[in-house]
Write a structure and sequence with these properties.
- This protein is mostly helical and 524 residues long.
- Among the domains are: 196 residues, Growth Hormone, Chain: A (Up-down Bundle); 58 residues; 63 residues.
- The protein has 21 helices and no strands.
- Helix 10 runs antiparallel to helix 11, helix 17 runs antiparallel to helix 20 and helix 18 crosses helix 20.
- It is globular, with a radius of gyration of 23 Å.
- GO terms for molecular function: transmembrane transporter activity.
């Protein structure tokens, strides 16, 4: 009987792993499908941005809400409902007759993805115990790492061979399998909120606050030359921050709060969310820039890029279970710190490798170190985050770790993008006056390059129209060097972010579970 229960637990992990993989994959898999979508819907990349943004926004906004509902009414119920919603929305997206329907479908799909992601760790923690829990959370961390980094490869293959609807339709058969396995094998957790009132005000305030801040960052990303003080940016950011401050005051006073604010008094928990934020803003955000480097400048196809990025993602498959086993013997805190430092070194190696003739051969050592850091930290972070957490709070802790990881990714993409833009423009300003051409023409070309940005500047410099100009070769050389300066600055910044995350973990996280239990008792 005990052997059967053990097998059932691991089958249950398969169900939760499938849900997590699909939910996170859909954050990144759409990127490589955008050119095909643009042709299919006869629209522009600007209009297609909401295919990405709708998922990112709704996903981040609903993570905590779904976590709380799971804690209150049973995590299996909410996870299963989220899974079904995700599968149905995926099918609708694959058949979407218009961009408007696709945008709506992506938002609905994100609600399902948030529910699956936010409750998976808590379900694993409640379905497993002892050393098995560390191993199971380690495997789940592997899946998180692989799904976040394998979007270009999986998306590129599906789009290339089956068209863009395939990136949504592929969720349907795997989702049906996950639904069946969840119903049969996943154990339900107690409904901790039977006698509690839903904190509707807290849910609304958290949703509005997160929406305003993340949307403000998205607006800034889309308009890098708007000042932070521009009302269209600062208005959203300030409004979001004010709403989140009100949310904290409300949570401190209501009888059954959405979030127990006392969790943030625990240094160990603060350390884990700092690491989650550093992972998102350092490693995951950098992946977008690395993909652009490989495709736009080196010239690899989407599939070729994805294959080479296995140098990063494949480590998650190998190291997740290893990290889970080691976490029961050694300090998770110091393994996280060491892994983050290794990741930081990887970024510095990549910054040093970037040049006009860079290829995968020069990049892979840094990518391997990035992969090692991601492969170790993700599973360790999941386990460490659950340490000392009361059963009724596990869903919320899981949700908060994912919120900070996702929020970090959004902040990182915007922040790194602004650094790259600034370095790109500065190099153009310094070098283009040396070109032998009329000042008016030079200023027009420079303005076009700056407005296009580092990602698209290459297309302008190497366009057929520009090729015939007498100054073409010199201009192309300047543009490539400008892009390299920006990419090197992005890599160095990512390295610093990851090292800062390591420092935060070293000072705040605890080495032993017992110390965390003591803190909880003191705060209760």
């Amino acid at each position: 009987m005990e052997k059967k229960k053990k097998i059932d637990r691991w089958i249950a992990l398969t169900a939760m792993g499938l849900g997590v993989f699909m939910g996170l994959l859909d954050v990144t898999v759409v990127n490589v499908a955008l050119p095909t979508m643009a042709r299919g819907f006869k629209t522009t990349f600007t209009d297609l941005q909401w295919v990405l943004n709708a998922y990112t926004l709704v996903y981040a906004v609903t993570l905590m809400i779904m976590s709380k509902l799971g804690d209150m009414y049973g995590r299996k119920k909410i996870f299963l409902g989220s899974l079904i919603l995700f599968v149905v929305a995926s099918a609708i997206n694959g058949m979407a007759p218009s961009l408007f329907i696709l945008d709506i479908g992506r938002g609905v799909q994100a609600i399902g993805g948030a529910g699956m992601m936010s409750l998976s760790m808590a379900l694993v923690a409640s379905n497993f115990s002892g050393k098995e829990r560390g191993l199971a959370l380690g495997i789940l961390g592997s899946i998180i790492g692989v799904s976040s980094a394998s979007g270009p490869l999986i998306g590129g293959y599906l789009v290339e061979h089956f068209g863009w609807p395939a990136i949504f339709f592929v969720n349907v058969p795997f989702g049906i399998i996950a639904v069946f396995l969840t119903v049969v094998y996943v154990r339900e957790t107690p409904s901790y909120g039977k006698n509690h009132k839903i904190d509707l005000v807290g849910m609304i305030l958290s949703a509005i606050g997160l929406f305003a801040v993340i949307y403000g960052l998205i607006v800034k990303e889309g308009h890098p030359h708007w000042a932070w003080t521009d009302a269209r940016v600062s208005g959203l950011l300030i409004s979001g921050i004010v709403v989140m401050i009100v949310f904290v005051f409300v949570e401190m006073r209501v009888e059954d709060p959405m979030i127990d604010i006392k969790m943030f008094k625990r240094p160990h928990f603060l350390g884990t969310i700092i690491v989650a934020f550093a992972l998102g803003s350092g490693i995951y955000a950098y992946n977008a820039f690395l993909t652009a480097l490989m495709q736009n400048y080196i010239g690899y196809s989407a599939v070729q890029t994805g294959v080479r990025q296995l140098t990063i993602s494949a480590w998650s498959l190998v190291l997740g279970p290893v990290a889970g086993i080691l976490s029961s013997r050694y300090s998770k805190k110091w393994m996280i710190v060491g892994s983050m430092v290794i990741g930081g070194i990887g970024f510095f190696l990549m910054a040093n490798a970037i040049s006009p003739v860079v290829t995968f051969v020069e990049l892979w050592p840094g990518m391997v170190l990035m992969g090692l850091a991601n492969g170790m930290v993700n599973p360790l972070l999941n386990t460490a985050g659950m340490e000392g957490t009361l059963p009724q709070d596990m869903g919320m802790v899981s949700g908060l770790l994912n919120v900070f990881r996702q929020f970090g990714t959004t902040v990182g993409v915007v922040g790194l993008g602004l650094i790259q833009d600034a370095q790109f423009e500065n190099h153009l300003n310094a070098r283009m006056p040396s070109l032998e051409m009329p000042a008016k023409i030079m200023n027009n070309i420079k303005d076009a390059l700056v407005n296009a940005g580092p990602f698209s500047g290459h297309t302008i410099a190497f366009s057929s129209r520009m090729e015939h100009a007498p100054f073409a070769k010199a201009l192309q050389k300047i543009v490539i060097h400008a892009y390299d300066n920006g990419m090197a600055a992005v890599a160095v910044t990512s390295g610093v972010i990851v090292i800062v995350g390591a420092i935060g973990a070293a000072f705040l996280m605890r080495s032993y579970v017992d110390s965390v239990h003591v803190e909880i008792k003191q705060n209760k």
